[in-house]
What does this fold into?
Amino acid sequence: MAAIATLNGIELKRIVFGTDFSPVAERAATYARGLAQSFAASVDLVHVFDTDVYLDDAEPRLRTLDERLAVRSEKLEALAKTFAATGLRTKTELPMARPSWGGLLRAAETERADLIVVATRSKAQLKRVFVGSTVEELIRQAPQPVLTVGPHVAAAADGPLEFRRIVYATDFTPEAEKAAQAALLFAGHGAANIYLCHVMNRQADPEEAAAQRNVRENDVRENLERLMAASSLGAYGCELEIAYGAPAESILALAEKVKADLIVMGPRKHSFWLTHVKRGVTLEVLARATCPVLTVH
It folds into this structure.
């Protein structure tokens, strides 16, 4: 039975999957395929060809641009067959573009995609998501939610994909409810648990009075409860979590504790997470998470 494909304006009918044919991209493909099956969505498989980027050590030995394009086209068509074998509506695109993230975003715009799925590499390589674009630019620029599959994420099981334990980290910006709705959408039929999390800055003064700390925690808890009530998160066994310390460390620790299979971070613009992206919060979560990460505009 397919999951509900729309919730308060958020839809999942068209997925764009960007690939560079790397091993981590192969694992990301299993999530694009599983979600497409779960939501009865179509999938556009996109490989952006940057002429300055080589897929592997063998490719530079190819003599012409046409030869390189032919090799990549064969890889893309082989991938498409694995999607089509499950009965999914699938198409392929091999645009030539620089920067690569721009080519993917144009494909997503043309297809009116509801979700972009990509792989991320190791922490040292996070400046390069599928053939040479930056994770930061992709999640900043895409109007759609972006699901990233990092280097420590295992492949999804065959068949329709359902997330059972979702960590949703919020900073209480006005757009936060949209990210909450995305968490609800991916919660499926109600079998998921959602862990609603806010990370508080650790105070520089270690002698902060317990009463003052309790006041701040109570304010945060009230905000979490308001968000939960406004977004119907409570219907999904929602649990409230308040953490102190570094945001990335706290989010990852919670995800590990509850064995999360999805982390939702949002919103992406004018938010704590992207305000601090250059200090590594979002990139650190993407690099180290053992489950996919959904960033929401």
Remarks:
- The domain at 165-295 is CATH 3.40.50.620 (Rossmann fold).
- The CA atoms of residues 145 and 296 lie 5 Å apart.
